[in-house]
Fold these 3 entries.
Entry 1:
Amino acid sequence: MNPKPIPEINAFNRPFFEGCAKGELRVRLCPRCSARFLFFYEWCPNCWSLEMGWEKVTGLGKVSHYCVVHQAPYAAFEDVAPYMLALIDLDEGVRMMSNIIDCEPDDVYIGLPVKVTFKKRGTVLLPMFVLRGS
């Protein structure tokens, strides 16, 4: 069986994954307009500034949308199916996609409070979410 994919770490996203390795969830922060967002942009999507920073966030949020994946798209994910793929609205205003783990699909609903945890995949720690209070 092929292993699960591992993100390619480069100079652009390295601070995000370095934070994950320390148990920190980090988002980009624009010092010009205070916009927060994930690392997908080299510039601020709000004011177009190129002066970007990073901010550690709480890792607390709520489920905005989710789906239960019953049939794994790749053999590497068969051992975890069914699994939940979700959009999480972080308390700091950033929306991110991740998995909700360590619960049953029937436990997940829109508005469910969750918190970040980090799971090892290969040499990288990835942010995933568990039910708050777990």
Entry 2:
Amino acid sequence: MRRIGVRTRALMVVALAVPALVLVACSSSPDGGGSVTVTPASAGPRPASPAVVTIVEPKNGATVPAQGATLQVKLTGATLTSVTSQDISPTEGHLHVSVDDQLISMTSGLKETLPDLAPGRHTLQVEFVASDHLPFDPRVITRGFFEVS
């Protein structure tokens, strides 16, 4: 029987642990509060994607109402999918949407209603990620800001 070296054994543990960590990291909190934490982890090099993501609404610097503000995104060069998989494609994935550095949704849609927000300036980030919830390299990401009246 062939012996497995320490380094090979460590790589096998990482290869088995990463999918489980990604699923835990991208799941909702048990209290039902909807808070979500994504912890990027990677066991190897990430593919590049030809995708380009653009925030259509709210426009950068726009003023929006505290309730019912709409986020609309444009994605070119790739397709949104709701399927989660370790078999990644540079042209398939979904969006991670963050407001003020807090992940608010993981979506396969281009339009959604933002959560109720306090008055003031807020940052918005939308990232196209692979179907394993991890970023491409380089990241396909856009940021902007808006004011809530």
Entry 3:
Amino acid sequence: MTSPKFRPYTSGDKDACIDIFMSNTPRFFGIEEVVEFRQFLETLPCAYFVATQNDEVVACGGHGYHEKKQAVVLAWGMVRADLHKHGLGKFMLVERLKQIYKDFGEAFVQIDTSQHSKGFFEKYGFEGTQVIENYFAPGIHRVDMELRLNEKRHHTLLSK
């Protein structure tokens, strides 16, 4: 397989992103969340990106500044389920963090994820701040996490 490419989302990517979402249901997302995700893609309240391999969208994710939280929040990041454990999650996270540093400089980066993805984010320095059981759907708990993105961490990302 070729190396992934990172680019901004376009409206033509919508169906592929929804397919990626559905491939991760019900383990990582509750089926009822697809309505919210579809609305997100239609309104794009923040920067959103895709990863492609062989001209096929295989992952997506975004970020936006949340004024109330005074932090950059990662939004709707996911990799097509049959491609988990192939480095695409790492690729998307590193590329988004590089983009955040470029856009905002040093910043707090937050994410609300599930217990299934918590360990992945911990590997990159995110720390859990709270857990809300059955938040997303029955059996899918919300885990709030944060990372201080600074110059040292940014230089580490550039070497990846």
